[in-house]
């Protein structure tokens, strides 16, 4: 029986990229998990996902994969990133600061704050422009800051250290308000950023979280 004409047409239209797509489609779940596993190895406060745990989990969700295949998948991800996995980012600053904060003040619930900081950082990232605009207005005490003030403020918007302490301050305000002042003081001591600047960032962000004008 001869192949269906439409099937033959579809086969003839497939190019080399279709083969590549088929391979990627098959490996995609493993690649995604490799990204998660690599992230766990870079986290200061999270638990590292070792290969035994990874293979066991993947088997449980229907993906039969060996440790060797998992290592090759990690290597593929690293090559795709050109091995640049330690570029500075806001989360890195948050985690390092939490690590230091926990060492300096063991009573601070760092693990809970770490979890909450993820949500706060996500919110700040989504509302970044609005939050920094409010912070600019609050800092300059002007409803319409001048162009010169805006130009100088650019450095503030790019300061990951300020963002890191601000995110932790917001999470602390939400989770352990009674200790908030002490935590802000300690963050100021760690970073050299004034308590006033940390508090201003936290208050502006909290207003956006609750939807206050």
TrEMBL record:
Single Gene Ontology BP annotation: reciprocal meiotic recombination
Origin superkingdom: Eukaryota
Listed name of the protein: Chromosome 2 SCAF14976, whole genome shotgun sequence
GO cellular component: site of double-strand break
Source organism (scientific name): Tetraodon nigroviridis (Spotted green pufferfish)
């Amino acid at each position: 029986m001869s192949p269906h004409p439409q099937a033959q047409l579809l086969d003839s239209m497939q190019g080399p990229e279709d083969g590549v797509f088929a391979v990627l489609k098959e490996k995609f779940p493993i690649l995604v998990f490799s990204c998660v596993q690599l992230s766990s190895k870079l986290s200061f406060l999270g638990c590292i996902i070792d290969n035994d745990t990874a293979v066991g989990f993947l088997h449980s969700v229907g993906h039969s994969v060996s440790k060797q295949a998992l290592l090759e998948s990690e290597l593929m991800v690293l090559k795709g990133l050109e091995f640049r996995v330690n570029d500075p980012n806001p989360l890195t600053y948050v985690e390092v600061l939490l690590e230091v904060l926990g060492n300096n003040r063991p009573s601070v619930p760092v693990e809970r704050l770490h979890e909450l900081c993820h949500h706060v950082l996500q919110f700040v990232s989504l509302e970044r422009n609005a939050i920094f605009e409010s912070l600019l207005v609050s800092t300059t005490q002007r409803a319409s800051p001048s162009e010169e003030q805006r130009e100088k403020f650019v450095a503030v918007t790019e300061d990951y250290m300020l963002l890191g302490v601000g995110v932790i301050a917001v999470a602390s305000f939400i989770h352990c308000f009674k200790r908030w002042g002490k935590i802000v003081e300690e963050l100021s001591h760690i970073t050299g950023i004034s308590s006033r600047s940390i508090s201003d960032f936290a208050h502006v962000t909290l207003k956006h979280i609750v939807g206050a004008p």
